[in-house]
Amino acid sequence: QLSTGLYKKVLVILHDSVLPYMNEPTLMMDFLTVAYGIGGAISLLALNGLFILIHQHNLEYPDFYKKLYSLLDPSIYHVKYRARFFHLTDLFLSSSHLPAYLVAAFIKRLSRLALTAPPESLLMIIPFICNLFRRHPACKVLVHRPGGPEDMSEDPYIMEAEEPSESRALESSLWEIQSLQNHYHPDVAKAAAVLNQSLSEMEDDISGLLELSGYELFDREVKKKATDVPLEFEQIRGLFGRKNDIFAEHFSLD
Fold it and tell me: Among 6, 11, 17, which residue's Cα sits nearest to residue 31?
């Protein structure tokens, strides 16, 4: 049994400092699958080693996507290892052979969690979702459903479902991204508005957005050149400042 701190230290270096130098990397299968099942940051860090074993050593993990889906919780947009997790998730969801219900479940869950995510995470996850639509056109029904969310009395998507196949994501619509089109940050609103138009065939490069921080986002806004904004000033009259206000006849602001 390893302590949580030691578990993290081992998993951080395992994929590039240990596995490439082992004669039989498959000996680490049990260790990594157990670590992947623990949950939290340890599961996120185990993804790197598991990816190598799945991709290069034919490891079969029947419930891999179910576990990956369960790792999506509100903290995923705030954790220290966010960039590593989404880089690998992007790779795992890149296959065109994945069923539409599975990809739709990931899109829907990521969108629902995005409602409480910080702007720097939203600027990464919206292009990420757009790329999933490009790879899996069958999921575009979430965006182009006739009537959209206006015709739904309630969202059929089941957020609590552990199995992606039971989430009913394909029956839903992507009202969460529509909500983000009114986000307070203009860059986020602009990014979310992309789904109102037909997507280009070329995928967005999200590599430069994976490690975007709130400090960088703030610094970028501060360095923008200020533009002159035309202002019109009308002096307030009366108590409530309205034209022809009856209160202006009896009260004045001194």
Answer: 11
Residue 133, pLDDT score: 92
214's tokens = 């709130």
- Tell me which residue has tokens 């394909």: 170
Cα(54)–Cα(61) distance, integer angstroms: 8
Q: Kindly write down the DSSP assignment for every residue of 107-163, as one continuous string.
A: HHHHHHHHTT--HHHHHHHHHHHHHHHHH-GGGGHHHH-TTGGGG-SS----TT-SS
Residue 141 CA to residue 58 CA, distance in Å, equals 34
> Hey, what are 145's tokens?
């459903």
Instruction: Quickly count: other Cβ atoms within 10 Å of residue 224's Cβ.
Output: 7
- The pLDDT tens digits of the residues spanning 172-217 come to 888 899 899 999 898 999 999 998 888 888 888 888 888 888 888 8
- What is the reported pLDDT for 109? 93
Closest CA to 49 of 82, 88, 5: 88
pLDDT per position as a tens digit, 138-159: 888 888 776 666 666 788 899 8
Residues 56/81/22/31 CA torsion (nearest 10 deg):
-90
Other beta carbons within 10 Å of 132: 20
Compute the distance between CA of residue 91 and CA of residue 73 in angstroms, rounded to an integer: 19
Going from N- to C-terminal start, the domains of the chain cover: 99-147+154-224
Both tokens assigned to 98: 């994945």
How far apart are the C-alpha atoms of 63 and 120, rounded to whole Å? Answer: 31
Q: Are 189 and 164 in contact (CB under 8 A)?
A: no
Half-sphere exposure of 44 (CA within 13 A, CB side): 20
